[in-house]
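In this section we walk through a basic example: taking a raw amino acid sequence and producing a predicted 3D structure, encoded as discrete structure tokens. The instruction is simple. Fold the sequence below.
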Amino acid sequence: MPINWSWKQALSSSALALLATTCVYAIPKGPCEPKSKNVCCEEPKPGPFAFSYPKDMNLACPSDFYFYGDFLVMQPMEDGLEFGVRDTNGNGSGSTELIGGTVLSFSSEDKEYDWDFGARIGLGFYLNHDAWTVDFQWLWYKTNQDISASTAITGVIIPQWIQGNTTAPATGDSRASERWEMKMNVFDIAIGKPFHVSRHLVFEPHFGLRAAWIDQNYLARYGGNYATEMSGKNDFWGLGSRIGFKSNWHLGSGIEMIANSSTSLLYSNFDVKQSLPLGTNSWSLNHDFYRNSSNLEMQLGVAWGMHFNDMQNHIKLQALWEFHNWYEQNQLRKMIVDINPGQYVNDTISRGDLSLSGLSFKVLFDF
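The resulting token sequence is shown next.
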């Protein structure tokens, strides 16, 4: 049956429109566009891709690797590090009644945890196999925190890490202090797949391995009637899996919004040691055990990038606000002795989460 000429024109116009639309939104160049002349590269980039287009830095003769360095300004926090309760309104009679008590810690009253510096460096490669990436990363962070407290002669500081009488002493424990030291090393290796969800949104799911070491030292000192100190060590290592995603939201002129998230589950070891010299009531504790530990990270910020060296290289500057949460990192125990009748009371583990929050400033080079 012969086809009407008008139908032929309509079909041809529709096909051309479809091809034109496909070409406009293809990133990088789709299969309907002519290939660019290969002037210096041995092989063209893999493609075309049927379902999603890979992230393309549009570099001339790319070497397919990148490296970056981050400068971190973070505030660490950990639950369960309270070292005393100040009762400034005590009447000096040694009463068990707590009047106007204030918990003493690194974050209490007008005191906040100090900010400290860290670093993160990384190296990555683009693979020809489906445009995957392989990324190596090392994060280092260290902090030292100190705080001291005192009270008036009629007040008391009730210690939280050493045993005491059933009633608070009338004039003792007028001063106390604590020190917390923490050092963190985290190594990651990940395989990712950055691709364009749309013309202006790049999404990169990734998975890999994580190894982490977190060493903590804690010291609580008390004056007055007790004049002693509790020292503790809380060391951790873990090895396991990590999974997450990265996203780049392109606004134009090289400006991007960035939102990333990842989580890990690690087979871990805790080595906990504590000691308290206090005459006949001295004690020491060793606890070495294994468990599964988890970690959550989130990043949100902005970036700006540009090409240079005749489109052969690319640089990106990035500023992010980051959250890192390590669940139940504080495994120190609080041992209390009631001198009357002189029995030990084993308080629960502090079970405090360790968290970091703050800014990271990144410089990334693509080659």
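Looking at the output, two observations stand out. The domain at 57-366 is CATH 2.40.128 (Lipocalin). Helices lie at 5-25. In the next section we compare this with other chains.
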